[in-house]
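Annex B.
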Amino acid sequence: MIGVERAPHEDQEYFALSPEETILRLFNYYFPPYITLASRFDFLHGEEELYRNRRLKQYLLEYVEDGSADFMLGEKPMPVKQGDLFLIRPDHPHTIHGKAGSPYKCISILFHFGQSKNFPLSDLLPKETYLGTIRGLPLEDQLHQLVHNYQDPHWVNQLRCQHILIGILLQLLTSAAPFALNQTRSGARVELARRYLEQHYAENITLEQLESVSELSRNYLLSKFKQFYNLSPMKYLRWIRIQRAKELAANTSLSVNEIAIRVGYADVHTFGRMFKAETGMSLTQFSSSIK
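AraC family transcriptional regulator: predicted structure tokens.
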């Protein structure tokens, strides 16, 4: 397991590994996120170029503990200083130049989500590489806790590391612009449409009704709804109906036909086809799996 303090160019092999290659080395990880490296790095004073056009195959979350440097993402310059947090995505070329007379101490968290091709991290995290200044905030303490726990290779501590990383990512997700619904008028109107779906899922809802509720044009509503919730309104409606059907199957003795009607389907066969297409099993099979 990687120690707390690392020399600048130790462990460079970890940065070059693909997600598939890291899994073979991470013996105490049984599910994502897979944390390949969690460590502090202390670069020498006055070292001019720390990395040039480096391309990673994993995500890198980096926090500047002390000092400053000039960061380049492609051709875009971005100076970073103590307290700054930034995220480098896979296959994004980047260069980091140190500043003469200034140290550069950082926490680096290298991670990935394995073979999952559908995990929406790249869509949900802020598009900007720079994530803000977190010095003195709970996020800073959580990064320190992650590095501390990573020193112990026991699977319980690695599980704690995953828990901390998920918590950090969730905080970044919920602070991202797409989730700040109440900060914009359009966001608040899209939320009205979502609430209408939640409250009237058993009814025959149309896009025209959602346009009326939100007072947004259809194209704008569809675009913003997908941006905020990663689903179209009609797919979101199906998702709600599936969740309600599962709840009724688990907690009542209603028949499949009765459940179909309760969640907005007059025809049980149409409901059955939809449920199996979305979940991979029939509602009867789902009921049998939990009772």
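The chain has two domains: 5-177, 182-290. The radius of gyration is 24 Å. Further annotation is deferred to the next reporting cycle.
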